[in-house]
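Below is the record:
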Amino acid sequence: MGEIITVDDPADPRLHDYTDLTDVELRRRREPAEGLFIAEGEKVIRRAGEAGYAMRSMLLSRKWVDVMRDVIARSDAPVYVVEPALAEQVTGYHVHRGALASMRRRPLPGPADVLRTARRVVVMESVNDHTNIGAIFRSAAALGMDAVLLSPDCADPLYRRSVKVSMGAVFSVPYARLETWPKDLTTVQDLGFTVLALTPDERARTLDETAPHRMDRVALMLGAEGTGLSPRALSAADTWVRIPMAHGVDSLNVGAAAAVAFYAVTAGRPQQ
């Protein structure tokens, strides 16, 4: 069991992992470099532990110590207990859920490792909004997608906002980064995946017409909010697919579109 330590100085160096959590650019650089990520809220902290991530420390307000007692008992990591006002000074925002944990990152697997046993895969190009990343991972987990591949410029799935929006689903779906984009899509295709590019372009076939749930191995490719997939990514795909729209709506946001498309890809497939 980790030591429970009351801290009353916001400058205490032991709280370094939790400083400036609202500075997105700083945290995007710091966290991968320092090998950590922040889990926020009881459910997310528990799911990170259940997924095998080791804890570096916890930052709790007093009332959360009893709630998290079983988690504390299973770890040797120190637990820093602070007043809510001090937590706000350190993190830069009001910690509504009163519980934060600094977790150790693990080395990312290579694309071939996550594709080896997969049949339904998400490929994201330039999705750099952390909320969208979290929403897509949550839908991928819920609807039975097997793995996620990220282009080099996609946002970090383990950034606090992504983890929070996904409700910890980023821990459930294996993911890897492709190093050369979109050239590495040929690796996906060489492993027997049909790459479907999701686009609102009217030249694309509808998901119903394409029937991806009947294909043996499918990689569904999504682009960033607004800009969509790049011309290079579209050219690299095997087939363009679209979700039919009604009432003059031209498209859905990428999170909603992903959920619809994931259902079409996995419908009728036995869940693991």
Observations:
- The CA atoms of residues 112 and 187 lie 8 Å apart.
- Residues 130-142 form the longest helix (13 residues).
